[in-house]
Design a protein that fits this description.
Number of domains: 2
Distance between the termini: 72 Å
Helix content: 40-55%
Strand content: 15-25%
Structural class: alpha+beta
């Protein structure tokens, strides 16, 4: 009987320890977001438009919900099986959800979504005109003022950095020269006959304190992210 109680007690402590360790994941994530919020306030550079403070507080609260009851009960007596299971459940749920709320992931999703939306607008333009935009004015018309006035992906010192368009004529491939110093630049490179285009976009290599780079596909050593279409009579197909 005493042996069973001792085993149960150690299992409770082991589960509680696992719950505490798992709760440290959202705790460190939340603290990191709040630290980024402070950096955004102080850093004059560009940053990803994200609610760092709000989500930081949410994740710290989520960690506390699993962490505090177990730690408190452990000092009083052996943590109950319920509290240990609660801490493990909260920790596992938070650990699973954390990557989805990572600013780096959110920034990639927002930037790739912007290029996809513009790609569809350009396809619609081609469907009407039988070619892609042939100058900066047509490009702006094709993209649409509605998109350009949407909530930008990036900001600097609390002020939004608006989307900007760059028109590159007589292109034979995507534009990726590092002569841009601002994120949120959408570069439309179009062939000399205006029947093929390559769309690229500038972003930041990290959400806060990052340098301006061209958007790349997810994964280590990702290739340049390009939305490319070629016009065929009666069809605008993915190249």
């Amino acid at each position: 009987m005493g042996s069973n109680n001792k085993t149960s007690r150690w299992l409770s402590y082991g589960s509680a320890l696992l719950g505490v360790m798992l709760s440290l994941i959202p705790l460190s994530f939340g603290v990191g977001l709040m630290r980024d919020w402070l950096r955004v306030k102080r850093d004059p550079g560009a940053s990803f438009n994200y609610e760092y403070l709000l989500f930081g507080m949410v994740w710290v609260l989520a960690a506390s919900i699993g962490l505090i009851p177990v730690v408190y009960a452990s000092f009083k007596s052996a943590p109950s099986k319920f509290l240990s299971a609660w801490a493990v459940a909260v920790g596992l749920t938070s650990a699973y959800l954390t990557p989805e709320f990572n600013p780096q992931t959110s920034m990639l999703t927002a930037a790739t979504g912007a290029t996809r939306e513009i790609e569809q607008n350009l396809i619609a333009w081609d469907g009407i005109h039988g070619r892609y935009p042939m100058d900066a004015n047509e490009l702006a018309d094709a993209v649409g003022s509605e998109f350009l006035s949407e909530r930008p992906v990036f900001r600097r010192q609390g002020k939004a950095i608006p989307y900007r368009l760059r028109f590159v004529p007589n292109a034979t491939g995507p534009y990726e020269y590092q002569d841009v110093d601002e994120p949120g630049m959408l570069v439309y490179a179009v062939s000399s006959n205006f029947r093929e285009f390559w769309l690229t976009m500038t972003t930041l290599d990290k959400p806060v304190g990052g340098r301006t780079v061209f958007l790349r596909a997810p994964g280590a050593g990702g290739a340049l992210w390009v939305k490319s279409r070629i016009h065929r009579d009666g069809d605008a197909s993915l190249k």
